[in-house]
């Protein structure tokens, strides 16, 4: 349907409404006006909803927790003057440091240097958790490459912090 046909159809509808309004009682007119208002509001809300959806599609994707933590670690390593301590990033790193999927080997060596500066309660808790994990994995009878990689990372952390 072209724009001209649509406008002509709209004019025709308005003329029909005017003709029917002349035949309607005041109560019927009020009901008709409310219906029309409801339809306009519904159409307007639909347009607003579509505009919001379109805007969301254009927004850039937010980085994941792992990306932000690895970026934090990289910044600490490469440009200390631009680095700022962030507890949430440190906590994420400490929670995931034994997982090779979360923290690849290239970042793990940086993480070990970062852990050298770990102080206070964070250091104590990290050592306690590493010792507990080591005991758990030592008593485990599973021989898995993934488990061996975690054991190796735990050993390195314990050697560094103990």
UniProtKB/TrEMBL annotation:
Q: Where are stretches of biased composition, namely Basic and acidic residues?
A: 1-13, 26-36, 47-64
The source's superkingdom equals Eukaryota
WKF domain sequence ranges: 71-132
Q: Where is this region: Disordered?
A: 1-66
Stretches of Acidic residues bias are at 14-25
Q: Name one Pfam family in it.
A: WKF
Q: Where is the composition biased (Basic residues)?
A: 37-46
Name recorded for this polypeptide: WKF domain-containing protein
């Amino acid at each position: 349907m072209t724009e001209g046909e649509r406008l002509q159809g709209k004019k025709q509808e308005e003329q029909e409404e005017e003709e029917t309004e002349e035949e309607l009682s005041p109560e019927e007119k009020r009901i008709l006006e409310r219906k029309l208002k409801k339809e306009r509001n519904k159409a307007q809300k639909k347009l607003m909803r579509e505009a919001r959806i379109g805007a969301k599609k254009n927004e850039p994707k937010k980085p994941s927790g792992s990306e932000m933590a690895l970026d934090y670690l990289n910044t600490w390593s490469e440009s200390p003057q631009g680095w700022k301590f962030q507890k949430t990033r440190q906590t994420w790193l400490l929670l995931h440091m034994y997982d090779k999927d979360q923290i690849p080997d290239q970042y793990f060596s940086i993480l070990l240097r970062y852990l050298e500066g770990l102080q206070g309660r964070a250091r104590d808790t990290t050592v306690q958790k590493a010792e507990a994990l080591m005991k758990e994995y030592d008593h485990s009878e599973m021989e898995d490459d993934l488990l061996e990689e975690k054991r190796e990372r735990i050993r390195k952390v314990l050697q560094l912090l103990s």
